[in-house]
Design a protein that fits this description.
mainly alpha, single chain, globular
Length: 436
């Protein structure tokens, strides 16, 4: 059977897996094993075992449960509530200030937990009632929270970035540092958009009345709440950047810092530890199966001849930048119909070798890939952030309003993607300064 027919059958089977609702990690890995038995025979089982064993030996994987545990503990420590109180006092007098502050808090949470859901859900629960009470329009409320929360995919310690590093075999530390500046650029874009639009449309997000703005003393006292988040961020990212710790060791440092934060807020109880550990085991198990399924599929794809197909495509006389742009467009459309994990497992093993063969920097392309995953969280009909928001938003906010709210922020994300593509040093400067 020709290579083209084999790969056509493979991707046809992928569509069936998507349609069946089978968990993707099991469907993708199981499909690769089944096709391996058909085309190679029993000896393919050895390749599956080899792929699984090699993946599970990865030292980087140890960081996954540690970062997840850190995020779970921080979620129970009361840091988000304290940050929101401080932001309410400092940013409230500004038009759109509560929405801008929500983006800033989500940015800080992204640098502490590395996930999208905590930012969207926490700020949704804390921030939506407060902003609705002060006459903010639903579109600016939900859009700002979802956009800010999506930064958890890009700003380190991003969990999806760690999965990408394993699939693409790139340095997770360099990917972490590469995501810092693009993440801050997008956060700045979101805040600037909210500020400009609120200035032009005063009724969209009015400033707080004078009686709610607090005193200087109250604001200074509330500012103490930012000390612990800054300490945790510096402890994790600073130790990686300075070469003091590997990402795995930095994850352990972050876990200890999270426990300290919980103790400081008097939330370090056995109930909190039990709940955080249980949630960590559930999510870590899911991530491990995802990585395992991706590893088995990747080994099957290249063993069956996928590398030869890629090499043949590269012989076509097409400008390499057209190929990169086509990849970005394909990822944007993939993000509309599948989740971030599916995109990682399918496109990651295929696109990365192409980028290497074309002579592009794999860290730069990895950041572009992760920005696309961030866009996928906001684009309907499959954007996870939309579902998170629907789950925490009051019934007075319709799904149509939630969908409309993300349009300007998705446009800003695409602009940010283009800027990082045109100016690669935005993603490569910090990794080049890392002490190893």
């Amino acid at each position: 059977m020709s290579l083209g027919v084999i790969l056509l059958l493979t991707f046809g089977a992928l569509l069936i897996v998507f349609a069946s609702g089978l968990p993707l990690a099991f469907g993708l890995g199981g499909m690769a094993m089944a096709f391996g038995l058909v085309f190679w025979g029993p000896q393919s089982t050895f390749l599956t075992i080899q792929a699984a064993y090699g993946t599970m030996l990865s030292f980087v994987l140890l960081a996954v449960p540690l970062f997840i545990f850190m995020g779970n503990v921080l979620g129970k420590s009361g840091i988000a509530d304290e940050l929101y109180k401080a932001m309410h006092l400092w940013m409230g007098p500004v038009r759109g200030g509560l929405a801008i502050g929500s983006v800033l808090i989500c940015t800080a949470m992204a640098a502490m937990v590395g996930l999208v859901a905590p930012g969207v859900v926490t700020l949704g629960v804390v921030g939506i009632p407060s902003m609705l009470k002060r006459k903010y329009q639903p579109e600016i409320i939900t859009g700002s929270i979802m956009a800010g929360g999506s930064l958890g995919a890009l700003i380190p310690p991003s969990i999806v970035m760690m999965i990408y590093s394993l699939i693409s075999r790139q340095s997770v530390g360099q990917l972490f540092m590469g995501g810092v500046i693009p993440g801050l650029i997008l956060s700045t874009f979101y805040c600037s958009y909210i500020a400009i639009r609120s200035y032009l449309q005063p009724d969209l997000a009015p400033a707080l009345p004078p009686e709610e703005r607090g005193t200087i003393r109250g604001k200074v006292i509330a500012t103490r709440s930012v000390v612990l988040p800054i300490f945790i961020i510096i402890a994790v990212l600073g130790s990686i950047f300075l070469g003091i710790a590997t990402p795995t060791e930095a994850a352990a440092v972050g876990s200890v810092a999270a426990l300290v934060a919980a103790a400081f807020h008097r939330k370090l109880t056995w109930a909190v530890l039990k709940d955080a550990t249980y949630s960590t085991c559930l999510l870590s198990g899911m991530v491990m199966w995802i990585v395992l399924g991706a590893s088995v599929f990747s080994r099957y794809f290249f063993s069956v001849g996928g590398a030869d197909l890629i090499a043949g495509l590269l012989t076509l006389e097409v400008n390499r930048w057209i190929i990169v742009i086509a990849m970005q467009v394909s990822l944007i459309f993939m993000g509309m119909v599948m989740d971030d994990v599916a995109m990682l497992m399918i496109a990651g093993p295929i696109y990365t070798p192409i980028i290497l063969a074309l002579g592009f920097d794999p860290i730069w392309f990895g950041i572009l890939f992760i920005i696309n995953l961030q866009i996928a969280y906001l684009t309907p009909p499959f954007g996870y952030a939309l579902f998170y928001m629907r789950g925490v938003a009051p019934e007075s906010i319709t799904m149509g309003q939630i969908y409309r709210s993300i349009i300007p922020f998705v446009i800003l994300q695409i602009i940010g993607l283009g800027i990082v593509m045109v100016f690669p040093q935005l993603a490569l400067w910090l990794p080049s300064l890392m002490l190893r």
